[in-house]
Each structure stands twice: as C-alpha cells, then as structure tokens.
Amino acid sequence: MRKIIIVTALFFTTSNLLFAQLPAYFDVNSKYKQASELFEQEKYTAASSLFYEVEKDKTIQTPQSYNNTFTSNLKVNSEFYRAVCALELGNDDAEQLFKRFIKNHPESPKSKQAYFQFGKYYFNQGNYQEALKWFTKVSSIDLTGKDDTEYKFKTAYSFFETKDYASAKPLFGIVKDQNSKYSEQSTYYYAYIAYADKEYPIALKNFEKLKNSENYKESYPYYISAIYFLDKRYDDVIAYAAPIVENTKQLNETEMLRIIAASYFAKQDYTNALAYYERFMKRDNGKTQNNQDSYQIGYTY
User: Fold this and answer.
1) pLDDT digits (tens, 9 = 90+) for 189-244
2) Is there a domain that residue 155 lies in?
3) What does the pLDDT read at residue 236?
4) 20 to 30 A Cα–Cα from 4, which one of 63, 160, 171, 249?
5) How far apart are CA 244 and CA 178, in angstroms?
6) If you write DSSP's letter for every residue of 21-83 in order, what string do you get?
7) Angle 227-229-230 from CA coordinates, rounded to 5°
8) What domain range includes position 93?
9) Which of 88-97, 104-113, 168-177 is modeled with the greatest confidence?
10) Nearest 10 degrees: CA dihedral of 279, 284, 286, 289?
C-alpha cells in the first residue's frame, strides 16, 4: 500500500510539473509565431523585440525531449531573425549579431543564410569586395525562392562593381529571365556587359527589352543607337536617336549627337551632319572630340 501511495504521489508530482510547463511552452511558441508574422509584414522593430523575448526565454525544460528540441530550434531561429531585423533596420549591431550567430551555430542550416545576410550587410554599405567574401561562402542550393534570386542578383552586382564582368554575366543572365523585382536591372547589366564584350546582337536584343523602362530611359537609348551605328544602320540611327535627343534627357546625349551627326555624314547629308556636329561641339567643349570628328566637321563646312 505504501508503494502505491509513493508511486501515485510521484505520478501526480511529475504530471503537475509537466502541465505547469505547458502554458509557458505554448507562450514561447505563440510569441515566435507572432514575431514571424510581424517579420513577414516587414515590421522589423516589433518583430525583433519578440524574437529577443523568445531567444532569452528561461522556461524550465519539459520532460518531453521533442518539446525541448522544438523550443531550442525556436530560440536559434529567433537569434537568426533578430540579426536579420537589425540588418533591415540598418542598426549598428547587425554585424555583431550575425558574427555571434555564425560562431554559436556553425552547424545550423541557418548558418548559410547568415553568410548571405552578412554579405547583404556589406552590400548595403557599398562594400562589394567584402560582400563577395560572404556571398561566395553560399551556394544557390542553400537558399530558396526570393532569397535565391536576391542572392544571385547581389552577387552578380558585386562582381560587376568590382569589374569582374565574366563572373557577373552568367548570374545576371539567370536572373533577367526570372519574374522578380531584379529582372529589369539584370537585363540592363547583362546587356551592358554583352556590349562591352562586343557581343552586339545579344546586347541589342536585351537593350530593346528595356524600351518601356522608366528606370533606364535615360541610358539604354545610347547603346541601341551605338549598336545601330556600328552595324552601319544609319537610317535606323537617325529615325531612332534623333527624336529621343529632341524630346528626352539622356545621360549620354553628347555621344548620341555625335552618332547622329556621323550617320548623316555617312549618308552624305552634310547639312544635317553639320547641324548635329555643331550641337555636339557645343556640349562636348573639346573634351572628347577626336581627329575623325574634326575631319568630318571640317568637310561639312
């Protein structure tokens, strides 16, 4: 009888301990879920606060190992996402938080994502060389969906800014054909590199995809005009470029005036060639005028 009483007492003591922990366990889980929802809504300040509460929670472990493992994973994830929140908010402690996470959890599946996020930290600062040190620790297979697309674009752009066009081009080539917010930018840079590599048909095909772009309307027309000119499509140069320089502001307007003038000259329309050469000279002020320009200008007088 005494044994039965002791066992019964032990059962109720253990049960009371277990059930006492359930509210705390569910509270941690609820906080994590709420923090995740705030994170998805880009409410990073509020999300960070809740992630911190989950990360620092002192709930006594339950006798159930599954719950213990699950809670531990929530804490690891909270530590990671709190660092991401700091990055998105531009907080000074973002670097410290990512370094700590990588040090504390080198075997975590989130460590690769941490490398990517840490690379973004330097990318956002314009430190592309340092960003590449972290981006190159990550493989595309470590990321999914939007993260993978963003990773490819920002790695490509970092290569572009460090003049490693050969490494940037294939990544831009992948992203430009995907439906994402980076598609248009990737198309532009892919076309630019193709132009620099003298792959003019490829460059033209991709620059022409930007004809309705608001973001690049002041830059891509020059490259289309230049490719037409290099292909000796002088009528196309005039028909395309002349209305653009008359009606829009162009970053390379001086060069476009030179190309239009040279196209008229090639067609032996010296009156129009001179008119555009004079506009070119006024804008250029002798900065880029070369011997061929000077010869053709002199010939038109």
Assistant:
1) 999 999 999 999 999 999 999 998 999 999 999 999 999 999 999 999 999 999 99
2) no
3) 98
4) 63
5) 30
6) HHHHHHHHHHHHHHHHHHHHTT-HHHHHHHHHHHHT--PPPPS-HHHHHHHHHHHHHHHHHHH
7) 65
8) 1-108
9) 168-177
10) -80
Q: Which residues contact 22 (CB under 8 A, 6 or more apart)?
A: 62
DSSP classification of residue 237: H
Closest CA to 84 of 54, 106, 53, 116: 116
Q: How far apart are CA 238 and CA 280, in angstroms?
A: 15
Residue 23: the pLDDT is: 53
Distances in whole angstroms, Cα of residue 48 to Cα of each of 56, 79, 86, 121, 169: 12, 9, 8, 17, 37
Domain count, the chain: 1
Q: What residue type is assigned to position 55 of the chain?
A: E
Does any domain span residue 22?
Answer: yes
Does the residue 187 lie in any domain?
Answer: no
User: Distance between CA atoms of 254 and 73, rounded to whole angstroms?
Assistant: 60
Whether the predicted pLDDT of 12 surpasses 80? no
Average pLDDT taken over every residue of the chain? 88
pTM: 0.79
For the chain, percent helix, then strand, then coil, each to nearest 5? 75, 0, 25
DSSP state of 232: T
Residue indicated by tokens 């366990």:
25
Q: Is the pLDDT of residue 60 over 70?
A: no
d(CA 145, CA 157): 19
Confidence of residue 70 (pLDDT cuts 50, 70, 90): low
CB atoms closer than 10 angstroms to residue 76: 17
pLDDT per residue over 167-187, tens digit each? 999 999 999 999 999 999 999
pLDDT score of 68: 53
pLDDT of residue 26: 61
Is 60 inside a domain boundary? Answer: yes
